[in-house]
Amino acid sequence: MSYKIKLDIFEGPFDLLVYLIENARMSIYDIQISEITDQYLRYLKRMQALDINVATEFMVLAAALIEIKSKMLLPRMKQDGGVLAEEDPRTELVQRILEYKRFKTAAELLEQQEEYNQRIFEKPKEDLTLFASEAEEYLNLDLKQFVKVFHLFLRKKKNLEDIQRNYSRVERRTVSVESKIDHIKSVFRVKAKRRLNFKELLAPQSNRSDVVITFVSVLEMMRQKTMMAKQNVNFGEIILSLNDNTGNGKKNPAEGDIVS
Amino acid sequence: MTAKKTIKSAFESMLFVWGEPLDVSIAAEIFNISRKDAYDCFKELQAEYEQEGRGIRIREIDKTFQYCTYVENSEYIERLCNPAKEKRLSQSALEVLAIIAYKQPVTRGEIESIRGIKCERVIEGLVKKDLIAEVGRSAGIGRPILYGTTPAFLKNFGFKDLKDLPEIDDIESIVCKNEESDTLDLQQISIDFIKS
Amino acid sequence: MTAKKTIKSAFESMLFVWGEPLDVSIAAEIFNISRKDAYDCFKELQAEYEQEGRGIRIREIDKTFQYCTYVENSEYIERLCNPAKEKRLSQSALEVLAIIAYKQPVTRGEIESIRGIKCERVIEGLVKKDLIAEVGRSAGIGRPILYGTTPAFLKNFGFKDLKDLPEIDDIESIVCKNEESDTLDLQQISIDFIKS
Asked: What is the model's pTM?
């Protein structure tokens, strides 16, 4: 009958090593490497005799121990700040054992803590379906967003006010038909023509009030008999011609003329 | 004989893990005390929780005792169990809200003339969300409803009162300045507000 | 503003129905108070239960709070019922967990080099138990997984947070003490070994 037991009574090669060192009452800082290596190997051999799977890591440490043992026989010197010092091949091993020991102790502390906490009980969550209801919706408003929107609104509003201001300026201009008459006369001069289409008096992007004031001015000029207008069909083109200040108007403008 | 303090403390632990109503006689048996003594311990505990105004209480049901929550706290439990869903306001709702916040009390007509668009639905929505409310009637024709913001509105933005709202005059001057230089730094404005 | 007494009472009700650790920020939201204020309320409650020697206590785990029984009453609870206990962790699991807890974030390679033995399986088991989790990738060759502990770890071991872990810097003094104490002889081990 063979025992197929994993070597997990020791948590690894370092665990075994620490055990052996402590068992032999050696100082970790002054391991008698020869003795401890022998003990380690003897232990592994016994495991194998019991047909226990010895993890390869245990073998790796065994090899490392043998290496240290051989180095101990041939002490090496090392340059240390100009002074020759004997290099201790155990140094690295000690460091590793100490680090392992730290966490082994931490594991023991955790175990105690676990044991303690297993004596504390919690209760399960209550059945909360009774309290479940339509989830309340809440608003995620942030001030930044609010201000941004209000800002946009103010810009829009300002644009609107600008347009309204333009309107009032146009109205002020309608008062001065005289200046429009001057303008019309100058257009005739600039274009150097006797006859002009009404539309030619208008600026390319005239708005409605501009059209109206131009038309009113034309009527005024006809009243003053400084201009003649002719429209062949309803809604047709209005052909205007300046009187050469002779003052003999011949024709009245057609009624119902609409320029849009 | 176990000290009464220990027994009472143990009874609390037992009630807690048991969950369901715990029979006085079962509790008595564990300490090998009389049912009367056990009952008295439970009653003392019950009184203590009441006196201290604890959020959990001990209730008695036919010689059994049970932990339960304090009845007045059901509202908070409900809130805990029904975490509120986040909802955002639409752009138009925000705009209407902003107009109301700054121009309140204001009629729907005024809002619409500012925005140049109908906003009956938006106003309804904001009323339903308790962000705005009717605050009176205008003296104008038809005596239209005047709207204003609610305390819920203030709470949402963390404002103490309406004076906490970012200065509108400042914004206007900033807007004008910006239009001249044509460099609009929105980020800057909002940071100023948060600082204020 | 809700009175502090009301808030604390509500927190007790909430802790009770919730059962599981309750996040401070969730509790704070319900009353629209700061997390700091909510945290302080929980801490006050915690202190009250301790001072009064109550059989139920409030424990803190990573900015959450939970009702639990007073540890010294476990004996009575066990007499009352057979409370389900979590399976204890194996020695190797505890060792790996200790390394991860103190050195996190840490790669498997680092853990293995400390223990001198492979621990893939053990890590898998701890991940499955939700005591540790992947917390990222190391910048090293092959970008190995970095492990760290979880909130469940804190809860199971009764730590408030990672700062609450016992100090292990002066372990060297513990090492020296151990050297003086008696230990088992070799014969003893192999017997234990076969039995296990």
From this structure: 0.61
